[in-house]
Amino acid sequence: MSGNWGRNLRLSIFGESHGAGIGMVIDGLPAGLPVDEGQIATEMARRAPGKDPAATARKEADKVRLLSGVYNGKTTGTPICGLIENTNTRGEDYGNIQTLARPGHADYTGFVRYGGFNDIRGGGHFSGRLTAPLVFAGALARAFLAREGVEAAAHILSIEDVRERPFRAEDLTGNKLKKLREMSFPVLEEREEAMRQRIRQAKEEQDSVGGVIECAAVGCPAGWGSPFFDSVESRAASLLFSVPAVKGVEFGAGFEIAAMRGSAANDALCLEKGQVRTKTNRNGGINGGITNGMPIIVRAAVKPTPSIARPQQTIDYRALEPAEIQVQGRHDPCIVLRAVPVIEAALLLALTECALEIKK
Ligand SMILES: Cc1cc2nc3c(=O)[nH]c(=O)nc-3n(C[C@H](O)[C@H](O)[C@H](O)COP(=O)(O)O)c2cc1C
Q: Whose CA is nearest to atom 30 of ligand 1?
């Protein structure tokens, strides 16, 4: 059952891009957690389309209707259902993909997997729109983790070949991460214009670009997570790879750690004001699948938007004939900016799953 995730925090996602609505059922959060609908709306607005020229022209309010599990502004402890109605659908944009598979998208695989019964309008259940419920659930996870002293935020590390610096120790305070979350285009350096330029250029050329998002969580105590299948990395990666268009995930020094010597890759343990810390953080705050008290650092590679306007070679998957496709409709030339709060949500939800395991 691909729509369900988690053991302690149980998520169930539903909906299609151009159906009546999309949403999430969240079970496992404790009773009495304050639910700030304004805060949820702020998070949803960070992901919503139509707010930035670098993103899609489709405008959606993305208002979450809380159907259950919240009473007098607090969680009841029973399943929480958040529904987001689809208000701006243009099914006709997808007329020419009835049988032509968009390269890089899930039209062909979805057709095979569901025997042709899947709702193809706007990508159906495979649409990036399904990340809205993740952001909703992430907002609740954020509220839960705030009580534990955890803060998480992400920045755009690269767009195409424009790259800025990764997080440094001085960026990793709760207050600085909070400020990052308030930025409309979250970057650590002055690379916004160069990144936007790449996005504009790709759009002009009827093409798209991808990029890397780096996310940090601070304030996690040592001892969250378990070895093997329930490691912090396994749980976070499973949610991060659930995000459409994420094709790579790495923690700490990531793939670069493979080229290091042990003496460089090892994070020397030390004591700071009686607290166990490490001098460096090449392991991204995780050893043996368990948090070590240092910031959790994760990066996600987001591919270029598959739906591009320029002609591409494909097949008609019903007739099994070669074809050419020119994708119509309102597609982001780059989905990295809109994916930032989604990546944060994925990490927050994975950490909530780990925290709830300890509290059992
Ligand atoms: C926030 C967000 C928005 C997206 N918007 C689009 C879009 O406008 N057009 C498109 O073709 N793909 C978009 N995608 C990506 C597709 O949903 C994704 O590439 C597709 O489902 C295939 O899955 P895969 O790339 O993980 O293999 C978006 C993804 C995210 C996270």
A: 128
Between helices 336-359 and 131-146, what is the axis angle to 10°? Answer: 50
Residue whose C-alpha is closest to residue 209's, from 303, 340, 128, 325: 303
For 173-207, write each residue's pLDDT tens digit. 999 999 999 999 999 998 999 999 999 999 999 99
- Three-state SS at 49: coil
Q: Which of 155, 157, 156, 152 is nearest to 178 (CA)?
A: 152
In the structure encoding, which two tokens stand for residue 220, read together? 């996690």
Q: Whose CA is nearest to atom 29 of ligand 1?
A: 128
| Alpha carbon of 223 to ligand 1 centroid (Å) | 35
- pLDDT tens digits for 123-154? 999 999 999 999 999 999 999 999 999 999 99
Instruction: Say if CB 291 and CB 223 are below 8 A apart.
Output: yes
Indicate whether this model's pTM tops 0.85.
yes
Q: Are the C-beta atoms of residues 347 and 240 closer than 8 Å to each other?
A: yes
